[in-house]
Specification:
The complex is a heterodimer of chains A (141) and B (285). With 141 residues, chain A is mainly alpha-helical. Chain A contains 8 helices and 2 strands. In chain A, α2 packs across α4 and α4 packs parallel to α8. In chain B, α3 crosses α8. Classes of the chains: A mainly alpha (141), B alpha/beta (285). Chains A and B meet through α2, α4 and α8 of A and loops of B.
Protein backbone atom coordinates (compact mmCIF):
# COMPACT_ATOMS: atom_id res chain seq x y z
CA UNK A 1 0.00 0.00 0.00
CA UNK A 2 1.35 3.43 -0.87
CA UNK A 3 1.54 6.27 1.64
CA UNK A 4 -1.23 8.06 -0.26
CA UNK A 5 -3.49 4.99 -0.09
CA UNK A 6 -2.87 4.77 3.65
CA UNK A 7 -3.76 8.44 4.12
CA UNK A 8 -6.90 8.03 2.03
CA UNK A 9 -7.89 5.07 4.17
CA UNK A 10 -7.55 7.19 7.33
CA UNK A 11 -9.85 9.77 5.77
CA UNK A 12 -12.40 7.21 4.62
CA UNK A 13 -12.80 5.67 8.06
CA UNK A 14 -13.94 8.84 9.82
CA UNK A 15 -16.95 11.15 9.87
CA UNK A 16 -16.93 14.72 8.51
CA UNK A 17 -16.08 16.33 11.82
CA UNK A 18 -13.04 14.10 12.34
CA UNK A 19 -12.10 14.57 8.69
CA UNK A 20 -11.93 18.32 9.33
CA UNK A 21 -9.73 17.66 12.38
CA UNK A 22 -7.44 15.47 10.27
CA UNK A 23 -7.17 18.22 7.68
CA UNK A 24 -6.33 20.80 10.34
CA UNK A 25 -3.60 18.49 11.67
CA UNK A 26 -2.08 18.24 8.21
CA UNK A 27 -2.29 22.01 7.76
CA UNK A 28 -0.13 22.39 10.86
CA UNK A 29 2.34 19.77 9.60
CA UNK A 30 3.37 21.35 6.31
CA UNK A 31 7.17 21.65 6.58
CA UNK A 32 8.48 25.22 6.31
CA UNK A 33 9.84 26.13 2.90
CA UNK A 34 13.65 25.86 2.87
CA UNK A 35 15.22 29.31 2.64
CA UNK A 36 16.94 28.52 -0.63
CA UNK A 37 13.51 28.67 -2.32
CA UNK A 38 12.38 31.95 -0.76
CA UNK A 39 13.71 34.18 -3.57
CA UNK A 40 11.79 32.16 -6.19
CA UNK A 41 8.62 32.34 -4.14
CA UNK A 42 9.05 36.04 -3.50
CA UNK A 43 9.41 36.63 -7.23
CA UNK A 44 6.09 34.86 -7.81
CA UNK A 45 7.61 31.90 -9.64
CA UNK A 46 6.37 28.29 -9.43
CA UNK A 47 2.94 29.37 -8.27
CA UNK A 48 -0.25 27.39 -8.87
CA UNK A 49 -2.33 30.11 -10.47
CA UNK A 50 -5.60 28.21 -10.28
CA UNK A 51 -5.52 28.63 -6.50
CA UNK A 52 -7.07 31.73 -5.02
CA UNK A 53 -4.19 31.93 -2.54
CA UNK A 54 -0.51 32.10 -3.43
CA UNK A 55 0.53 28.44 -3.49
CA UNK A 56 4.23 27.84 -4.23
CA UNK A 57 5.22 24.36 -5.45
CA UNK A 58 8.75 23.27 -6.27
CA UNK A 59 8.71 19.84 -7.89
CA UNK A 60 11.99 18.15 -8.75
CA UNK A 61 13.06 14.66 -9.71
CA UNK A 62 16.55 14.07 -8.33
CA UNK A 63 18.49 10.83 -8.21
CA UNK A 64 15.44 8.75 -8.89
CA UNK A 65 13.23 10.38 -6.27
CA UNK A 66 10.62 13.09 -6.29
CA UNK A 67 11.41 16.13 -4.13
CA UNK A 68 8.51 18.34 -3.21
CA UNK A 69 8.76 21.70 -1.45
CA UNK A 70 5.78 23.92 -0.92
CA UNK A 71 4.60 27.09 0.73
CA UNK A 72 0.94 27.84 1.34
CA UNK A 73 -0.27 30.75 3.49
CA UNK A 74 -1.86 29.98 6.83
CA UNK A 75 -4.97 31.86 5.70
CA UNK A 76 -5.61 29.05 3.22
CA UNK A 77 -5.69 26.03 5.54
CA UNK A 78 -7.52 23.76 3.09
CA UNK A 79 -4.93 24.18 0.33
CA UNK A 80 -2.26 23.97 3.01
CA UNK A 81 -3.50 20.67 4.39
CA UNK A 82 -3.97 19.06 0.99
CA UNK A 83 -0.46 20.15 0.03
CA UNK A 84 0.89 18.73 3.29
CA UNK A 85 -0.78 15.39 2.48
CA UNK A 86 0.90 15.37 -0.93
CA UNK A 87 4.29 16.31 0.53
CA UNK A 88 3.99 13.44 2.99
CA UNK A 89 2.91 11.04 0.24
CA UNK A 90 5.21 12.12 -2.59
CA UNK A 91 8.39 13.71 -1.17
CA UNK A 92 11.04 11.03 -1.56
CA UNK A 93 8.75 8.71 -3.52
CA UNK A 94 9.62 7.06 -6.80
CA UNK A 95 8.46 9.15 -9.79
CA UNK A 96 6.40 6.22 -11.06
CA UNK A 97 4.42 6.18 -7.79
CA UNK A 98 3.40 9.80 -8.43
CA UNK A 99 2.44 9.04 -12.02
CA UNK A 100 0.41 6.03 -10.87
CA UNK A 101 -1.39 7.89 -8.09
CA UNK A 102 -5.16 7.78 -8.59
CA UNK A 103 -6.82 10.59 -10.52
CA UNK A 104 -9.75 10.69 -8.11
CA UNK A 105 -7.75 11.46 -4.98
CA UNK A 106 -10.05 14.27 -3.81
CA UNK A 107 -12.96 11.88 -3.93
CA UNK A 108 -10.97 9.20 -2.10
CA UNK A 109 -10.10 11.63 0.67
CA UNK A 110 -13.77 12.54 0.98
CA UNK A 111 -13.03 16.15 0.09
CA UNK A 112 -15.26 16.46 -2.97
CA UNK A 113 -18.36 16.10 -0.85
CA UNK A 114 -17.03 17.91 2.21
CA UNK A 115 -15.85 20.99 0.31
CA UNK A 116 -18.25 20.96 -2.66
CA UNK A 117 -17.26 20.92 -6.32
CA UNK A 118 -16.77 24.67 -6.52
CA UNK A 119 -14.06 24.60 -3.89
CA UNK A 120 -11.93 21.72 -5.14
CA UNK A 121 -10.74 23.32 -8.35
CA UNK A 122 -7.59 24.78 -6.83
CA UNK A 123 -6.81 21.50 -5.10
CA UNK A 124 -7.16 19.56 -8.35
CA UNK A 125 -4.76 22.03 -9.92
CA UNK A 126 -2.15 21.42 -7.20
CA UNK A 127 -2.41 17.66 -7.70
CA UNK A 128 -2.33 17.87 -11.47
CA UNK A 129 0.62 20.26 -11.41
CA UNK A 130 2.67 17.71 -9.46
CA UNK A 131 1.78 14.81 -11.73
CA UNK A 132 2.37 16.81 -14.91
CA UNK A 133 5.69 18.18 -13.72
CA UNK A 134 7.00 14.77 -12.67
CA UNK A 135 5.92 13.35 -16.05
CA UNK A 136 7.64 16.22 -17.87
CA UNK A 137 10.92 15.79 -15.99
CA UNK A 138 10.87 12.02 -16.53
CA UNK A 139 10.44 12.51 -20.27
CA UNK A 140 13.19 15.12 -20.39
CA UNK A 141 15.64 12.91 -18.49
CA UNK B 1 -17.99 55.76 7.14
CA UNK B 2 -20.59 58.46 7.65
CA UNK B 3 -20.43 59.53 4.00
CA UNK B 4 -21.94 56.35 2.63
CA UNK B 5 -25.56 56.25 1.52
CA UNK B 6 -26.42 53.71 4.25
CA UNK B 7 -23.56 54.08 6.74
CA UNK B 8 -25.38 52.08 9.39
CA UNK B 9 -24.71 48.72 7.69
CA UNK B 10 -20.94 49.00 7.77
CA UNK B 11 -19.15 48.77 11.12
CA UNK B 12 -15.50 48.94 12.11
CA UNK B 13 -13.41 46.28 13.79
CA UNK B 14 -13.39 48.50 16.88
CA UNK B 15 -17.19 48.63 16.89
CA UNK B 16 -17.30 44.83 16.87
CA UNK B 17 -14.51 44.55 19.46
CA UNK B 18 -16.60 46.67 21.82
CA UNK B 19 -19.58 44.33 21.45
CA UNK B 20 -18.11 40.81 21.50
CA UNK B 21 -20.14 39.94 24.60
CA UNK B 22 -23.47 41.34 23.42
CA UNK B 23 -24.54 37.84 22.48
CA UNK B 24 -28.15 38.35 23.54
CA UNK B 25 -28.88 40.85 20.77
CA UNK B 26 -25.97 40.47 18.38
CA UNK B 27 -24.54 37.51 16.50
CA UNK B 28 -21.15 37.62 14.81
CA UNK B 29 -21.00 35.37 11.74
CA UNK B 30 -17.79 34.35 9.98
CA UNK B 31 -18.23 33.29 6.35
CA UNK B 32 -15.16 32.20 4.44
CA UNK B 33 -14.19 30.74 1.12
CA UNK B 34 -12.03 28.27 3.06
CA UNK B 35 -14.02 25.79 5.12
CA UNK B 36 -11.18 25.18 7.61
CA UNK B 37 -10.25 28.77 8.32
CA UNK B 38 -12.81 29.36 11.09
CA UNK B 39 -11.45 26.34 12.99
CA UNK B 40 -7.93 27.77 13.02
CA UNK B 41 -9.17 30.77 15.03
CA UNK B 42 -12.04 33.25 14.84
CA UNK B 43 -13.51 36.23 16.66
CA UNK B 44 -14.62 35.43 20.20
CA UNK B 45 -18.31 34.44 20.18
CA UNK B 46 -18.42 34.22 16.37
CA UNK B 47 -20.30 31.35 14.71
CA UNK B 48 -19.51 30.03 11.24
CA UNK B 49 -21.84 29.85 8.27
CA UNK B 50 -20.41 27.94 5.33
CA UNK B 51 -21.62 28.99 1.88
CA UNK B 52 -21.54 25.45 0.46
CA UNK B 53 -22.58 23.20 3.29
CA UNK B 54 -25.04 25.53 4.99
CA UNK B 55 -26.43 27.99 2.43
CA UNK B 56 -26.83 25.74 -0.60
CA UNK B 57 -29.45 23.08 -1.08
CA UNK B 58 -28.00 19.64 -1.70
CA UNK B 59 -30.62 18.50 -4.18
CA UNK B 60 -31.91 21.62 -5.89
CA UNK B 61 -29.29 23.86 -7.44
CA UNK B 62 -30.35 26.79 -5.33
CA UNK B 63 -30.06 28.29 -1.90
CA UNK B 64 -31.68 26.56 1.02
CA UNK B 65 -35.43 27.16 1.18
CA UNK B 66 -37.32 29.45 3.49
CA UNK B 67 -37.96 26.86 6.23
CA UNK B 68 -34.42 25.53 6.08
CA UNK B 69 -33.12 29.07 6.41
CA UNK B 70 -35.24 29.58 9.52
CA UNK B 71 -33.83 26.37 11.03
CA UNK B 72 -30.28 27.48 10.24
CA UNK B 73 -30.85 30.79 12.04
CA UNK B 74 -32.41 29.05 15.03
CA UNK B 75 -29.42 26.73 15.35
CA UNK B 76 -27.02 29.68 15.25
CA UNK B 77 -29.01 31.46 17.95
CA UNK B 78 -30.32 34.10 15.55
CA UNK B 79 -33.88 35.35 15.96
CA UNK B 80 -35.72 37.82 13.74
CA UNK B 81 -34.57 40.84 15.72
CA UNK B 82 -30.94 39.73 16.23
CA UNK B 83 -28.34 42.06 14.72
CA UNK B 84 -26.05 39.91 12.56
CA UNK B 85 -22.51 41.11 11.81
CA UNK B 86 -20.82 39.37 8.90
CA UNK B 87 -17.09 39.15 8.29
CA UNK B 88 -14.75 36.74 6.53
CA UNK B 89 -11.72 36.05 4.38
CA UNK B 90 -10.98 37.24 0.81
CA UNK B 91 -11.99 40.87 1.25
CA UNK B 92 -15.33 39.88 2.76
CA UNK B 93 -16.62 38.22 -0.46
CA UNK B 94 -18.40 35.46 1.41
CA UNK B 95 -19.43 37.81 4.18
CA UNK B 96 -21.21 39.92 1.55
CA UNK B 97 -22.62 36.76 -0.01
CA UNK B 98 -24.04 35.57 3.34
CA UNK B 99 -25.32 39.10 4.01
CA UNK B 100 -27.07 38.99 0.63
CA UNK B 101 -28.66 35.60 1.40
CA UNK B 102 -29.89 36.95 4.74
CA UNK B 103 -31.39 39.94 2.91
CA UNK B 104 -32.93 37.53 0.39
CA UNK B 105 -34.89 36.07 3.30
CA UNK B 106 -35.72 39.49 4.66
CA UNK B 107 -33.49 39.62 7.72
CA UNK B 108 -33.61 43.22 8.90
CA UNK B 109 -30.49 43.94 10.90
CA UNK B 110 -27.47 42.86 8.85
CA UNK B 111 -24.06 44.51 9.17
CA UNK B 112 -20.66 43.99 7.55
CA UNK B 113 -17.42 44.41 9.48
CA UNK B 114 -15.23 46.59 7.28
CA UNK B 115 -11.90 44.95 6.44
CA UNK B 116 -13.03 41.48 7.50
CA UNK B 117 -10.83 38.84 9.04
CA UNK B 118 -7.63 40.22 7.60
CA UNK B 119 -7.95 43.65 9.20
CA UNK B 120 -8.98 42.19 12.55
CA UNK B 121 -5.86 39.98 12.58
CA UNK B 122 -3.54 42.71 11.34
CA UNK B 123 -4.70 44.90 14.20
CA UNK B 124 -3.63 42.17 16.61
CA UNK B 125 -7.11 41.62 17.95
CA UNK B 126 -7.99 38.38 19.77
CA UNK B 127 -8.88 35.11 18.07
CA UNK B 128 -10.12 31.93 19.68
CA UNK B 129 -10.68 28.35 18.60
CA UNK B 130 -13.48 27.96 21.12
CA UNK B 131 -16.76 27.35 19.29
CA UNK B 132 -19.55 29.15 21.13
CA UNK B 133 -22.91 27.52 21.82
CA UNK B 134 -25.98 29.72 22.03
CA UNK B 135 -29.49 28.76 23.06
CA UNK B 136 -31.65 27.83 20.10
CA UNK B 137 -33.60 30.84 18.88
CA UNK B 138 -37.01 31.14 17.28
CA UNK B 139 -37.08 32.38 13.67
CA UNK B 140 -39.78 33.04 11.11
CA UNK B 141 -38.32 33.41 7.62
CA UNK B 142 -40.01 35.47 4.95
CA UNK B 143 -40.35 34.36 1.34
CA UNK B 144 -37.38 35.24 -0.87
CA UNK B 145 -37.12 38.91 -1.76
CA UNK B 146 -36.63 38.43 -5.47
CA UNK B 147 -35.97 42.11 -6.08
CA UNK B 148 -32.29 41.62 -5.18
CA UNK B 149 -31.81 38.39 -7.13
CA UNK B 150 -31.75 37.96 -10.91
CA UNK B 151 -32.49 34.71 -12.73
CA UNK B 152 -31.23 33.85 -16.20
CA UNK B 153 -34.42 34.71 -18.09
CA UNK B 154 -34.57 38.06 -16.36
CA UNK B 155 -30.93 38.70 -17.20
CA UNK B 156 -31.60 37.79 -20.82
CA UNK B 157 -34.51 40.24 -20.98
CA UNK B 158 -32.39 42.86 -19.22
CA UNK B 159 -29.59 42.31 -21.75
CA UNK B 160 -32.00 42.65 -24.68
CA UNK B 161 -33.35 45.87 -23.20
CA UNK B 162 -29.74 47.15 -23.00
CA UNK B 163 -30.01 47.47 -19.21
CA UNK B 164 -26.78 48.06 -17.29
CA UNK B 165 -24.85 44.86 -16.53
CA UNK B 166 -21.72 44.81 -14.40
CA UNK B 167 -19.23 41.97 -14.83
CA UNK B 168 -17.03 42.14 -11.73
CA UNK B 169 -14.55 39.39 -12.72
CA UNK B 170 -10.95 39.99 -13.72
CA UNK B 171 -10.32 41.45 -17.18
CA UNK B 172 -8.92 38.10 -18.41
CA UNK B 173 -12.07 36.26 -17.36
CA UNK B 174 -14.21 38.99 -18.94
CA UNK B 175 -12.35 38.83 -22.24
CA UNK B 176 -12.80 35.06 -22.34
CA UNK B 177 -9.19 34.01 -22.05
CA UNK B 178 -9.74 30.70 -20.32
CA UNK B 179 -6.67 28.66 -19.63
CA UNK B 180 -6.78 25.58 -21.79
CA UNK B 181 -3.91 23.65 -20.34
CA UNK B 182 -4.25 19.88 -20.75
CA UNK B 183 -5.66 18.04 -17.75
CA UNK B 184 -6.32 21.23 -15.84
CA UNK B 185 -9.70 21.80 -14.31
CA UNK B 186 -11.74 24.34 -16.23
CA UNK B 187 -13.70 27.31 -15.01
CA UNK B 188 -16.93 25.36 -14.98
CA UNK B 189 -18.21 27.05 -18.14
CA UNK B 190 -18.01 25.73 -21.68
CA UNK B 191 -17.39 29.14 -23.19
CA UNK B 192 -15.29 32.08 -22.07
CA UNK B 193 -16.44 35.66 -22.42
CA UNK B 194 -19.10 37.91 -20.94
CA UNK B 195 -22.76 38.78 -21.24
CA UNK B 196 -23.17 41.06 -24.30
CA UNK B 197 -23.16 44.69 -23.27
CA UNK B 198 -21.75 44.09 -19.79
CA UNK B 199 -19.20 46.54 -18.45
CA UNK B 200 -16.12 45.07 -16.81
CA UNK B 201 -15.64 46.66 -13.39
CA UNK B 202 -13.56 44.23 -11.30
CA UNK B 203 -14.84 44.01 -7.71
CA UNK B 204 -11.35 44.82 -6.43
CA UNK B 205 -11.60 48.39 -7.66
CA UNK B 206 -14.06 49.04 -4.84
CA UNK B 207 -11.68 47.81 -2.13
CA UNK B 208 -8.45 48.88 -0.52
CA UNK B 209 -5.62 46.39 -0.09
CA UNK B 210 -6.45 46.03 3.60
CA UNK B 211 -9.89 44.72 2.68
CA UNK B 212 -11.84 47.86 3.59
CA UNK B 213 -14.15 49.57 1.13
CA UNK B 214 -13.05 52.69 -0.68
CA UNK B 215 -14.45 56.08 0.30
CA UNK B 216 -17.72 57.24 -1.18
CA UNK B 217 -16.11 59.89 -3.38
CA UNK B 218 -13.69 57.30 -4.78
CA UNK B 219 -16.56 54.92 -5.47
CA UNK B 220 -18.58 57.67 -7.14
CA UNK B 221 -15.64 58.53 -9.37
CA UNK B 222 -15.43 54.88 -10.43
CA UNK B 223 -19.05 53.84 -10.86
CA UNK B 224 -20.70 57.14 -11.77
CA UNK B 225 -18.11 59.34 -13.49
CA UNK B 226 -15.97 56.69 -15.15
CA UNK B 227 -18.50 53.90 -15.79
CA UNK B 228 -21.64 56.04 -16.09
CA UNK B 229 -23.88 53.80 -14.01
CA UNK B 230 -27.18 55.32 -12.98
CA UNK B 231 -28.25 54.93 -9.31
CA UNK B 232 -31.91 54.86 -10.40
CA UNK B 233 -31.57 52.29 -13.18
CA UNK B 234 -32.12 48.60 -12.60
CA UNK B 235 -28.61 47.15 -12.55
CA UNK B 236 -27.46 43.52 -12.60
CA UNK B 237 -24.09 42.37 -11.24
CA UNK B 238 -22.50 38.97 -11.83
CA UNK B 239 -19.17 37.13 -11.59
CA UNK B 240 -18.39 33.38 -11.79
CA UNK B 241 -20.54 31.99 -8.98
CA UNK B 242 -22.05 35.09 -7.42
CA UNK B 243 -19.74 35.78 -4.50
CA UNK B 244 -17.61 38.63 -5.90
CA UNK B 245 -20.75 40.20 -7.35
CA UNK B 246 -22.29 40.16 -3.84
CA UNK B 247 -19.42 42.44 -2.87
CA UNK B 248 -20.25 44.85 -5.71
CA UNK B 249 -24.00 44.51 -4.99
CA UNK B 250 -23.25 45.61 -1.43
CA UNK B 251 -21.14 48.56 -2.60
CA UNK B 252 -23.72 49.81 -5.09
CA UNK B 253 -26.73 49.28 -2.84
CA UNK B 254 -25.48 50.39 0.57
CA UNK B 255 -22.43 52.54 0.02
CA UNK B 256 -23.69 54.41 -3.06
CA UNK B 257 -27.45 54.11 -2.55
CA UNK B 258 -28.38 52.49 -5.89
CA UNK B 259 -32.06 51.59 -5.69
CA UNK B 260 -32.44 48.47 -7.85
CA UNK B 261 -29.36 46.29 -7.92
CA UNK B 262 -29.74 42.57 -8.43
CA UNK B 263 -27.13 39.90 -7.99
CA UNK B 264 -27.18 37.26 -10.75
CA UNK B 265 -25.93 34.37 -8.62
CA UNK B 266 -26.09 31.89 -11.51
CA UNK B 267 -23.38 34.11 -12.99
CA UNK B 268 -20.91 32.92 -15.61
CA UNK B 269 -21.07 29.30 -14.46
CA UNK B 270 -24.66 29.31 -15.69
CA UNK B 271 -24.55 31.83 -18.55
CA UNK B 272 -21.41 30.36 -20.10
CA UNK B 273 -23.19 27.01 -20.40
CA UNK B 274 -26.64 28.11 -21.57
CA UNK B 275 -27.95 26.83 -24.88
CA UNK B 276 -29.01 29.47 -27.37
CA UNK B 277 -27.91 32.60 -25.53
CA UNK B 278 -25.25 34.90 -26.93
CA UNK B 279 -21.94 35.81 -25.38
CA UNK B 280 -19.38 38.45 -26.25
CA UNK B 281 -15.59 38.08 -26.29
CA UNK B 282 -12.74 40.51 -26.17
CA UNK B 283 -12.34 43.86 -24.48
CA UNK B 284 -16.01 44.68 -25.05
CA UNK B 285 -17.86 47.77 -23.99
Amino acid sequence: MTTLDAIAEDFQMVDDETRLELLLDYARQLPPLPEVYHPLRDRGLYMVHECQSPVFLMIEVKEGAVRLHADVPEEAPTARSFTAILVKAFDGAAPQAVLDAPADILYRLGLTRLLGMQRTRGLSAIYQRIKNEVARQMEAA
Amino acid sequence: MADYAHPEVLVSTQWVADRLDDTGTLRIVESNEDLLLYSTGHLPNAVQIDWVNELQDELVRDFIGQEHFATLCEQKGISNDTTVVFYGDKHNWWACYAFWVFKLYGHQKCLVMNGGRKKWIEEGRPLTTEVPAFPEASYTARPQNRSIRAFRDEVLAHMKAAGPLVDVRSPAEYRGELTHMPDYPQEGALRGGHIPGARNIPWSRAAHDDGTFKRRDELETLYLDEQHLDPDAETVAYCRIGERSSHTWFVLTYLLGFRHVRNYDGSWTEWGNLVSVPIERGAGT
